[in-house]
């Protein structure tokens, strides 16, 4: 009996901790997943004393979008510029410790790239390592730190275009969005998406409704599929996924139920060209590549500032997949999108934001 | 209000309830076995994750979902043996071994997935068939809920029945329960309780493996993502405790979780997703309170019976 009570206590303690985790989103998982620092296979043999770039991602690679895009960027740096590359995956925890690990393994002048809003402690950690150049992706320090370059992306602007395309392809005039969690960055996509859809509707005089839900996980494709099916039940026939690996389930639901999907962060068309009509690209990799390339050329003026990669920089936009892949978006919609992109870049259209 | 009700009580909700409940229910059947044998098994989440991975791997290697299932069965036996080796043979702390198994499963599947499929993971491997029941689609509502589901949704019903018969109507089931409740008595009767624990552990490995295989090959079309079990094993554990390891009640508990998952998703239009997200966990806590209170009541009644 004693054992049974113990079992009850432990299990309720466990579910309580799970509930707490659920609320905090990607805070931590129930079991202490070992974070595994790993040497990435840098293709070019780095010269001795070459600049070292350490990439620290908040979760794990394999999302075929956000984190993988950053990895492509540093891999390209290794190939083109001969920098040496190290990667650390935090698996959703110990972000501060891993930042320090990355910095401890760096020599003066090396670069540490932190990918994910979770690295907010960079504000206090970076001053401890004044010789290391930090890049923080997807968020900005509350006040400028001299050796930190913040890169944020105007995902709302890219999502505006995605919303426009979704509305143009919708036959039911209901479009949907599946978010990873109810958080500021994710909602920034959604408000842009909604505004874009409504912009198309105002052009044609139709009424459009935008439905959404949140999967509350970035690693659970089964839940992503359920989210998409639930939106499809509400009539949505074009669904935008903003949920990392969870979004794979959105693509599957699209295939099974016969609706269209829109990819996120990377150009995800290749995953399923028949149902993925386009992707809202956030070129994390290219922006890291360009920032570090500039540093190699001796230009470190960006450090200490926040670099907003908006529509005019070309780091956010729409991708339609590789040439030759099936295209569902008509050419006239594509040219309208291009025109809109110009208007957003010039400031003629102002896209709402949650940040 | 009508809007809310009609979206909650749509066939889609109940269809999702079935889909979401099935992996949890299969794992809970496995958990019922170890629970009866007196092993506290919190390693089910890891077992599910391994099942999900090995199912996809088998399906990918042999281009056949059936081979994926065979591979999961083999893996389930191995994991069960592994679990029993530590908990029964070496008498290690079950809680620690379960936690270790979960961590190990996360590391192993992530490592293998990357070695085999690269960081991009895998999807679109041969999946399990869906079952179409003729005539059922003519029935309004029920047709939309019960027809055209993945194979394991139906197999789970058979497995629930089989597990129930096994536990309560066969001598093995009797010994299994005795191994947990009165191991010394069982030993006196000439049967080693350890043997029953080994058996329970293997059955649990297999059933949890199938839960994972259903997740990756049934609910999804041959897709594996790292950490995709996403705490379903813990929910299954809650079902086991709540149902006092009765397979049919455990299935009902899993259905209840599935139902709340489904309405949670549909309620997001009306209340914050942070709130709908805690529904399953809130239910678990309520269940636990119920179990404890009921246990106390029974004990009190028991005393009264003795007194008279």
Radius of gyration of chain B, in Å, reads 20 Å
What is the succession of H and E elements of chain B?
HHHHHEHEHHHHHHHH
Tally of contiguous helical segments of chain A: 10
- Output the CATH topology of the largest domain in chain A: Rossmann fold
What amount of the residues of chain A lies in strands?
15-25%
Structural class of chain A: alpha/beta
Q: Architecture of the largest domain in chain A, according to CATH?
A: 3-Layer(aba) Sandwich
pLDDT < 50 stretches of chain B: none
Q: How much is the average pLDDT of chain A?
A: 86
Q: What is the share of helical residues of chain A?
A: 40-55%
Major beta sheet summary of chain A: 7 strands, mixed
* Total domain modules of chain B: 1
Q: Biggest interface: chains and residue counts? A: A-B, 56 and 58 residues
Structural class given helices, strands, pairing of chain B? mainly alpha
What is the terminal-to-terminal distance of chain B? 54 Å
Q: What is the alpha-carbon Rg of chain A in Å?
A: 21 Å
């Amino acid at each position: 009996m004693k054992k049974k009570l113990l079992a009850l206590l432990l299990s309720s303690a466990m579910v309580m901790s799970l509930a707490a985790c659920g609320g905090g989103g990607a805070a931590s998982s129930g079991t202490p997943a070992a974070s595994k620092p790993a040497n990435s296979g840098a293709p070019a043999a780095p010269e001795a004393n070459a600049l070292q770039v350490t990439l620290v991602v908040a979760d794990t690679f394999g999302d075929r979008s956000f984190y993988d895009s950053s990895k492509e960027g540093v891999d390209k740096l290794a190939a083109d510029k001969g920098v040496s590359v190290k990667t650390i995956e935090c698996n959703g925890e110990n972000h501060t410790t891993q930042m320090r690990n990355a910095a401890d393994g760096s020599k003066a002048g090396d670069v540490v790239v932190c990918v994910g809003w979770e690295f907010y402690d960079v504000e206090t950690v970076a001053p401890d390592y004044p010789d290391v150049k930090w890049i923080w992706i997807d968020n900005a320090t509350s006040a400028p730190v001299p050796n930190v370059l913040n890169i944020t992306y105007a995902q709302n602007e890219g999502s505006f275009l995605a919303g426009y395309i979704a509305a143009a392809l919708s036959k039911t005039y209901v479009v949907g969005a599946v978010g990873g969690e109810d958080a500021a960055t994710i909602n920034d996509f959604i408000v842009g998406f909604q505004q874009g859809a409504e912009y198309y509707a105002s052009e044609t005089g139709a009424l459009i409704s935008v439905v959404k839900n949140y999967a509350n996980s970035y690693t659970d494709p089964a839940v992503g599929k359920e989210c998409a099916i639930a939106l499809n039940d509400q009539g949505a026939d074009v669904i935008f996924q903003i949920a990392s690996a969870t979004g794979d389930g959105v693509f599957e639901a699209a295939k099974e139920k016969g609706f269209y999907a829109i990819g996120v962060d990377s150009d995800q068309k290749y995953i399923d060209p028949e149902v993925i009509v386009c992707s809202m690209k956030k070129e994390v990799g290219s922006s890291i590549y360009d920032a570090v390339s500039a540093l190699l050329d001796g230009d470190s003026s960006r450090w200490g500032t926040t670099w907003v990669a908006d529509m005019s920089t070309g780091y956010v936009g729409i991708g339609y997949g590789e040439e030759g892949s099936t295209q569902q978006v008509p050419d006239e919609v594509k040219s309208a999108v291009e025109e809109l992109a110009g208007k957003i870049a010039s400031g003629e259209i102002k896209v709402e934001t949650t940040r | 209000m009508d809007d809310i009700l009609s979206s909650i009580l749509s066939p889609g909700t109940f269809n999702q309830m079935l889909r979401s409940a099935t992996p949890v229910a299969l794992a809970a059947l496995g958990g019922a076995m170890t629970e009866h044998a007196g092993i506290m098994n919190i390693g089910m989440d890891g077992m599910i994750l391994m099942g999900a991975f090995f199912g996809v791997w088998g399906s990918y290697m042999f281009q056949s979902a059936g081979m994926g299932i065979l591979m999961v069965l083999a893996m389930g036996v191995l994991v069960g043996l592994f679990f029993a080796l530590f908990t029964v043979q070496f008498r290690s702390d079950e809680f620690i071994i379960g936690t270790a198994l979960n961590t190990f499963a996360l590391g192993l599947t992530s490592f293998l997935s990357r070695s085999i499929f690269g960081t991009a993971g895998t999807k679109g491997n041969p999946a399990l068939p869906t079952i179409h029941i003729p005539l059922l689609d003519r029935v309004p509502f029920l047709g939309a809920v019960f027809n055209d589901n993945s194979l394991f949704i139906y197999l789970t019903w058979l497995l629930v029945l089989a597990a129930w018969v096994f536990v309560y109507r066969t001598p093995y089931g009797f010994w299994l329960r005795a191994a947990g409740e009165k191991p010394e008595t069982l030993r006196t009767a000439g049967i080693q309780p350890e043997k029953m624990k080994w058996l329970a552990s293997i059955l649990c490995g297999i059933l949890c493996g199938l839960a994972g295989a259903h997740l990756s090959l049934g609910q999804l079309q041959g897709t594996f993502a790292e950490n995709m079990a996403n705490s379903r094993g813990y929910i299954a554990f809650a079902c086991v405790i709540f149902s006092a390891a009765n397979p049919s009640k455990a299935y009902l508990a899993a259905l209840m979780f599935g139902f709340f998952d489904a309405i949670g998703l549909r309620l997001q239009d009306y209340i914050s997703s942070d709130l709908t997200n805690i529904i399953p966990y809130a239910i678990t806590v309520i269940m636990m309170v119920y179990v404890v209170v009921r246990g106390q009541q029974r004990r009190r009644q028991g005393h009264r019976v003795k007194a008279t």
